[in-house]
# Entry
Amino acid sequence: MEYLNINKQKIVCPQCGSNDFKAIDKSHIECRHCATQVDTTIIFTDDTNQNMKINDGADVEITNNAKVKIKGGLEIKGGTLIIKDGGSLEIG
Ligand SMILES: [Zn+2]
# Structure
C-alpha cells in the first residue's frame, strides 16, 4: 500500500526507496521490501503558515482510506497529525 505525507508526496522508504508499506501500528508503517519502519506521525511546528488551524494538543488522525481535502491550506499551532491505513491529506 502506498502512503502519502502531508505534502501529498508518496512516502518512500529511506533505506530502499520503495513506496510499498504495510501498517504496523497507529503511527508506523513498515517497508514491505526491507522492513524499515517509518513513523507517520507528523509533529507540527509554527514554522508553517497555512490556513486550516490545528492547535496545540490537537490529535488528528486520517485513517481507513479517508481522503481529506483542505482548501486554502493549513495553519499549524502544534499538535499531531497521523495518516495511516491508506488515508491521505490534500491541501490547496
Ligand atoms: Zn525499504
Summary: Residues 41-91 form one domain. The first strand starts at residue 21 and ends at 25. Strands lie at 21-25, 28-31, 37-39, 41-43, 52-54, 59-62, 67-70, 74-76, 80-83, 88-91. Confidence is low (pLDDT under 50) at residues 45-51.
